[in-house]
Design goal:
The complex is a heterodimer of chains A (550) and B (356). With 550 residues, chain A is mainly alpha-helical. Chain A starts with 10 loop residues before the first helix and ends in an 8-residue tail after the last helix. Chain B folds into two domains: 227 residues, P-loop containing nucleotide triphosphate hydrolases (Rossmann fold), CATH 3.40.50; 109 residues, Beta Barrel (OB fold (Dihydrolipoamide Acetyltransferase, E2P)), CATH 2.40.50.100. Helices cover 24% and strands 34% of the residues of chain B. In chain B, strands 6-7-8-3-9-10 form a six-stranded mixed beta sheet, with helices on both faces. A five-stranded antiparallel beta sheet of chain B has the order 13-12-11-14-20. Chain B has a five-stranded antiparallel beta sheet with strand order 15-19-16-17-18, with no helix packed on it. In chain B, β1 and β2 form a beta hairpin. In chain B, α2 packs across α3 and α3 packs across α4. Classes of the chains: A mainly alpha (550), B alpha+beta (356). At the A-B interface, α19 and α20 of A face β6 and α2 of B. The structure holds adenosine-5'-triphosphate (ATP) and magnesium ion. Adenosine-5'-triphosphate (ATP) binds next to α1 of chain B.
Chain lengths: 550, 356
């Protein structure tokens, strides 16, 4: 047989080329186009766009704003998520299972729904605000701007840290803790000297994800940011701006965004490379019962945090059943919001189901193929595919949207405004995650199993589909469900790409919120939550260990 | 049925050459064992025969047909992997039937053949279980059945018994031997356990650093090892310095032995391999190598002695236990050798002078 780690034009070679072609066409070309637009004006090469950005306070301040709020959100998410995961691993806590599910649900919902719910609760006319104001005379701190964004990001993104760290802690061997206890190192000191160093790489990976999510989130700053403008906001407004459309300038902002996330990505990689080691636990940590004041504090912490995290969902669900008159809520309950919802939905429910389903099929197929190429056929071309596939991981959704829209708006590649391009955007953005989880699954499967099939006369592709894929299937299915959930709550790319015909549920919710149709928005958001919860229940059935990989 | 010929096989991983120009012939129907220390290239060679490793040089033939560029799935080989490589998502029966299905046989034949081999391996009662519920020995039998049922031309086994406990290993060793003889299939067997190799093989190739050191029957290997490495790798042995002078071997302390076979060998310094059972203990003062017993271990049938004969390395010897053992630690004795059994190597230990 020939060398598997050298390029050959067999079936796998052809697949490599096809995948590479797809990436070149749908990612490299649009991004290249974006960069070109940023640097080329009507009169050839120019840095005007960049000069404009950095010389006007109005624009350049968004850099600092984005950075500040993302960094703050990362820190607060760590401060909440790490202890939470640690408590869950170390102690027996009643209702742990339920809390875990609630955390996952809150992590899976669209951030802007959270922002909207917090406005209803703590905003200028929020229920809590009015309650405190009228009854106790206390005025609530301003929820708009930095504070509100921090609140929304933290309550939603701490769950990512929690899930990451919980996964890492499940791989820490109990004997390590016992050994340090033997040497007289317990409690907080043990956490900082033994546990934290072990999970540092995971904590850093989670922190990166939180940072990038916060930095690229579009819906939250639009709704709750008000004067506190961040990057994705001006990117969006410059791009779709009704007053003046300046594609070159928007592209320049996009390029700056890419540079920032790339730098952060490499910085994180650099730090965690030096600290990473692999762990494998034979004896997972055994949770201990909680007693005394410490016990009460741990309980209060866990329940309060989860309560706050899930509050937006619950409140939105509640308001969806309230009676409305026009755009304002009135006393009493009804299903009117749901009934009215259908008149406004248009085809967005179908779109929310069809587009992600199409994207999901493509994501799963491509991810499995790419994972196979990069694990079993390492060569220069597959490595290139590998690197390319990871690029979207650090590119904000708004940027992906702009790149696609501007690159595919004329013949022969006039995809703008079609469902195809919306699905394509989801595929590109979701692939890095699915590839990574598929690679992890594949690495667990010894290559000899495939060789056994080959030696028994099974052709290469048949072996792949009959042996390799079924062995990967439970992992693939649970990964696919998670992808699905994130796809249906996606907003930033859809906002750029949608047209009347391809509007999705998240876009519809956003539009209704902007128009002040809070009842209808709440009903739609509740529908989205229900779909999410059902999907997660299905996920739980398929997932072997319930581990969530984002 | 098949005969395997390898000519000048070369295997490189990057810039390191693991096998450089290895040639061998495997006869039709024999059980051929590749034996050697860890890392010597056994698995590499086996996987080249199977078609899972690229071949950087040389030619591989099955029955005279060159197979270098034949895909693994076209070679008609049965392979038993070290970790069994059972398909975890298929039942035992589906595992065994897998290869037959690829051969597009009709249902009835597939069912009949599958059952036949399930019976032969005594795993019929587990046929509908998933492999994860089977013990190591049972999984191994599934792997064997799966490899044999396709009636391969060649059966390849890579340390198939290494994961089993001692008792099961003995049982399975016998089972493999029986089935191989019954089916009469050319088999290449890889192991680093020399006892396993001796008990199971028709022919053994002892490998070191990607090269064959000695190829022969178990008896040949033990009695007339091709070089010093083989002598020390197969069984235990004592290496003594000596010198040949006019057909007589002079051992340390001046003890000289003569044997008719040695007459034609030119005078030279030699290394002498004397296996523990090739020493004979005589009373102190008799002709032989004088020594002091340092330790003795009674093992029932045999007794084991460690004797200081004035060399850096103490001599190890073994003899059938006697009723009252008068050779206790501290005793002075004299050692002679069974001249027809011992082996003489050149000074470098590269050639056995008795192998012509
Ligand atoms: N994929 C590989 N890349 C680089 N070197 C390799 C690779 N596979 C094996 N080697 C090297 O080739 C040599 C032979 O390896 P091989 O696995 O054939 O040994 P072996 O005789 O089967 O050993 P063992 O008894 O431990 O299984 C070793 O030095 C090993 O390090
Ligand atoms: Mg090996």
């Amino acid at each position: 047989m020939k060398d598997n780690n050298r390029f050959r034009l067999d079936t796998w070679g052809a697949i490599t080329l096809a995948v590479l072609g797809l990436y070149l066409l749908f990612m490299v070309y649009p991004l290249g186009n974006l960069i070109k637009m940023a640097f080329y004006g009507d009169n050839g090469f120019t840095l005007d766009n960049f000069v404009k950005f950095f010389s006007k306070q109005y624009y350049s301040s968004t850099l600092g704003n984005s950075f500040k709020v993302s960094l703050a959100a990362t820190i607060t998410s760590l401060l909440v998520g790490v202890p939470m995961a640690y408590f869950f691993a170390m102690y027996r806590i009643r209702g742990k299972g339920l809390l875990r599910i609630l955390i996952i649900i809150s992590s899976m919902s669209a951030p802007f729904v959270g922002a909207y719910a917090w406005i209803l609760l703590l905003g200028r006319n929020g229920v809590v605000t009015n309650f405190l104001q009228n009854l106790l005379g206390i005025s609530v701190p301003d929820i708009y701007g930095f504070n509100g964004m921090l609140l929304v990001f933290t309550t939603q993104l701490f769950s990512l840290i929690f899930l990451y760290v919980a996964g890492a802690l499940s791989k820490v061997d109990n004997s390590l803790l016992e050994a340090s206890e033997n040497m007289g190192c317990v409690g907080v000191r043990r956490f900082f000297t033994v546990v934290l160093p072990l999970i540092t790489p995971t904590v850093l990976a989670g922190a990166l994800l939180v940072f990038i999510r916060a930095l690229s989130d579009f819906g939250t700053p639009m709704l709750i940011g008000e004067g506190y403008r961040t990057f994705p906001v001006i990117l969006y407004t410059e791009f779709v701006g009704e007053v003046s459309q300046n594609k070159g300038f928007a592209s320049a902002i996009a390029v700056i965004a890419i540079i920032i996330t790339t730098v952060v990505f490499y910085a994180q990689n650099f730090v965690s490379k030096r600290k990473s080691f692999s762990m494998n636990s034979l004896h997972p940590i055994e949770p201990k019962p909680l007693r005394g004041v410490k016990g009460i504090l741990v309980y209060v912490f866990c329940y309060v945090v989860v309560g706050i995290a899930i509050l937006p969902q619950v409140y939105v669900l509640y308001t969806s059943f309230k009676k409305t008159s026009g755009t304002i809520y009135v006393d009493g309950y009804s299903l009117d919001s749901y009934i009215n919802m259908f008149t406004r939905l248009g085809s967005s429910i179908q779109n929310t189901l069809i587009i992600p389903v199409v994207a999901l099929v493509a994501v799963v197929l491509l991810a499995v193929l790419i994972a196979y190429l990069s694990v079993r056929r390492r060569n220069a071309l597959t490595s290139t595919v590998d690197v390319l596939s990871m690029v979207p991981y650090i590119i904000p959704g708004t940027v992906v949207g702009i790149a696609l829209v501007t690159s595919f708006n004329h013949k022969p590649l006039a995809f703008t405004g079609t469902m195809f391009i919306m699905a394509m955007a989801l595929v590109i953005r979701r692939l890095p995650y699915t590839i990574r989880s598929s690679v992890a699954i594949l690495q667990q499967i010894p290559i000899t199993i495939e060789e056994a099939a080959l030696s028994l006369g099974s052709p290469k592709m048949k072996t792949f589909f009959q042996i390799t894929v079924p062995m990967m299937s439970s992992g693939i299915i649970s990964g696919a469900i998670l992808s699905w959930v994130t796809m249906i709550s996606e907003l930033s790319t859809a906002m750029i790409l949608y047209t009347g015909r391809t509007q999705t549920l998240t876009v519809a919710i956003y539009t209704q919120i902007i128009r002040g149709n809070y009842g209808i928005a709440a009903a739609m958001a509740s529908v989205l939550t229900v779909i999410t919860v059902i999907s997660l229940l299905v996920f739980n059935r398929f997932s072997k260990n319930g581990e969530i990989t984002m | 049925m098949s005969q395997i010929t390898i000519k000048n096989a070369v295997k490189r991983y990057g810039s390191t050459t693991v096998i450089s120009g290895l040639s061998l012939d495997i006869r039709d129907g024999e059980l051929f064992t590749l034996l050697g220390p860890s890392g010597c290239g056994k698995t590499t060679l086996l996987r080249m025969i199977a078609g899972f490793n690229s071949i950087e040089g040389g030619d591989f033939y099955f029955n005279g047909e060159r197979i270098n560029d034949k895909e693994p799935n076209k070679r008609n080989i049965g392979m038993v992997f070290q970790n069994y490589a059972i398909f975890p998502h298929l039942t035992v029966r589906e595992n065994v039937a897998f290869g037959l299905k690829n051969r597009k046989l009709d249902r009835a034949t597939i069912a009949r053949e599958t059952d036949r081999f399930l019976d032969m391996m005594q795993i019929r009662q587990y046929a509908d279980r998933l492999p994860e519920n089977l013990s190591g020995g049972q999984q191994q039998r599934v792997a064997l059945a799966r490899a044999l049922v396709i009636r391969p031309d060649v059966l390849l086994m890579d340390e198939p018994l290494s994961n089993l406990d001692a008792k099961l290993r003995l049982e399975m060793r016998q089972a493999i031997r029986d089935i191989q003889k019954e089916v009469g299939i050319t088999t290449v067997y890889v192991t680093h356990d020399q006892e396993e190799a001796m008990s199971i093989s028709d022919t053994i190739a002892v490998m070191r650093d990607g090269a064959i050191q000695h190829l022969g029957t178990p008896r040949d290997l033990y009695q007339r090892p091709g070089n010093l490495f083989v002598a020390t790798f197969i069984g235990r042995t004592n290496i003594l310095p000596g010198e040949l002078r006019g057909g007589a071997l002079v051992l340390p302390s001046g003890y000289a032995v003569e044997a008719p076979d040695w007459q034609d060998i030119p005078d030279q310094k030699v290394q002498v391999s004397v296996r523990p059972e090739e020493f004979v203990i005589g009373p102190a003062g008799a002709a032989g190598i004088p020594g002091t017993v340092v330790d003795s271990v009674y093992l029932g049938l045999n007794t084991h002695y460690i004797v200081d004969i004035g060399l850096e390395q103490k001599a190890e010897l073994i003899r059938e236990s006697t009723i009252d053992d008068e050779v206790v630690p501290g005793s002075q004795i004299s050692l002679t050798v069974k001249r027809e059994k011992i082996n003489l190597f050149d000074q470098q230990g590269e050639h056995n002078l008795l192998r012509g």
